[in-house]
């Protein structure tokens, strides 16, 4: 699969059945994903893989965290995929690299791994929930006090049909209860999103990506006192 196609077609998959990648394949893909930007090559993460009956241990921990009427449902969460790859953030303290950068690097690895799984035909979804802070869950997985559980990558085989997939973001913006598509001038009615093939409604909080990119520079110089010397500007433009 070509890279751009993989990035654009990856969607989180909730309906995941057997089989899942074996540990050797998972590790090989993680090795590749670990090439994501990582300041200092610290690899401040580790993974705990759960399959088969091991998932019941996690399910029991989920249930312990839940109120009595919701325990069965909580336990079943751990069986939603054949492979649960627990993401443990293990920030390194013996470095000047700030913790937030280490967390950012870890998120980059997770996304790269999702892409690589997708490229190989596997489905995945990153899930968290209140369970990540549950002492019982943390103890079950052996998460140390100075580590943070970032949730699980649920991994398996998605169904062949693509019905449950969410569409890649297309820039539609929800306005006034309906949807509108930038540029075409036609405002579809409120039921338009129910038609087969209609674009998925994007939640209000989702800003179009182009609104998050700015090419405007702040006024320069910000103040007379902070302007660089003309000589330094000359040196930079000459390099
Ligand atoms: C750190 C993180 C935690 C998430 N936790 C959950 C979760 O607990 N449950 C859930 O349904 N989706 C969760 N999501 C969102 C899904 O992983 C997924 O990104 C979302 O359903 C959008 O689907 P897409 O990846 O196809 O765009 C989480 C995403 C991230 C990045």
> What is the CA–CA distance across the termini?
39 Å
- The H-and-E topology, N to C, reads as HHEHHEHEHEEEH
Q: What general outline do the C-alpha atoms trace?
A: globular
Counting DSSP E segments of at least 2 residues, the number of strands comes to: 6
Helix content: 25-40%
Low-confidence stretches: 168-203, 224-239
Care to describe what's here?
The protein has helices at 3-9, 23-33, 54-65, 71-76, 99-119, 135-141, 230-238; strands at 45-51, 83-89, 123-127, 148-156, 173-175, 178-180. The strands form two sheets. The protein has a four-stranded antiparallel beta sheet with strand order 1-2-4-3. The chain contains seven helices and six strands; from the N terminus they run ααβααβαβαβββα. By secondary structure, it is α+β, with helices and mostly antiparallel strands. The chain is globular and about 60 Å long. The model is unreliable at 168-203 and 224-239 (pLDDT under 50). The protein has a domain at 17-156: NADH Oxidase (3-Layer(aba) Sandwich), CATH 3.40.109. α2 (23-33) crosses α5 and α3 packs antiparallel against α6 (135-141). The chain starts with a helix and ends with a helix. The structure holds flavin mononucleotide. The site of flavin mononucleotide has 9 residues, from β3. InterPro entries: NAD(P)H_nitroreductase, Nitroreductase, Nitroreductase-like. It comes from Streptomyces daliensis. GO terms for molecular function: oxidoreductase activity. Residues 9-156 form the Nitroreductase domain. It holds the Pfam family Nitroreductase.
List strands and helices in order, with pairings.
Blueprint: H1 3-9, H2 23-33, E1 45-51, H3 54-65, H4 71-76, E2 83-89, H5 99-119, E3 123-127, H6 135-141, E4 148-156, E5 173-175, E6 178-180, H7 230-238
Helix pairs in contact: 2-5, 3-6
Bound molecules: flavin mononucleotide.
Flavin mononucleotide binds next to strand 3.
GO molecular function: oxidoreductase activity
Domain Nitroreductase: 9-156
InterPro entries: NAD(P)H_nitroreductase, Nitroreductase, Nitroreductase-like
């Amino acid at each position: 699969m070509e890279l751009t196609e993989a990035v654009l077609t990856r969607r989180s998959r909730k309906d995941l059945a057997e089989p899942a990648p074996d540990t050797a394949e998972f590790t090989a893909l993680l090795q590749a994903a670990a090439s994501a930007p990582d300041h200092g090559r610290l690899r401040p993460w580790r993974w705990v893989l759960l399959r088969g009956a091991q998932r019941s241990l996690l399910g029991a921990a989920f249930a312990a965290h839940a109120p009595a009427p919701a325990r069965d449902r909580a336990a079943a969460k751990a069986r939603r995929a054949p492979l649960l790859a627990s993401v443990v953030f293990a920030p390194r303290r013996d470095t000047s690299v700030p913790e937030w950068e280490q967390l950012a690097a870890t998120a980059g690895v997770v996304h790269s791994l999702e892409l690589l799984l997708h490229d190989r035909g596997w489905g995945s979804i990153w899930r968290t929930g209140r369970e990540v802070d549950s002492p019982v869950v943390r103890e079950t997985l052996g998460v140390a006090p100075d580590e943070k559980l970032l949730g699980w990558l649920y991994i398996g085989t998605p169904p062949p049909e693509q019905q449950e997939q969410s569409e890649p973001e297309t820039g539609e913006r929800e306005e006034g209860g309906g949807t509108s598509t930038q540029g075409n001038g036609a405002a579809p009615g409120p039921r338009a999103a129910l038609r087969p093939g209609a674009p998925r409604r994007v939640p209000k909080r989702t800003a179009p990506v182009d609104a998050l990119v700015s090419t405007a520079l702040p006024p320069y110089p910000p103040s007379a006192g902070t302007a660089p010397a003309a000589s330094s500007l000359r040196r930079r433009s000459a390099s």
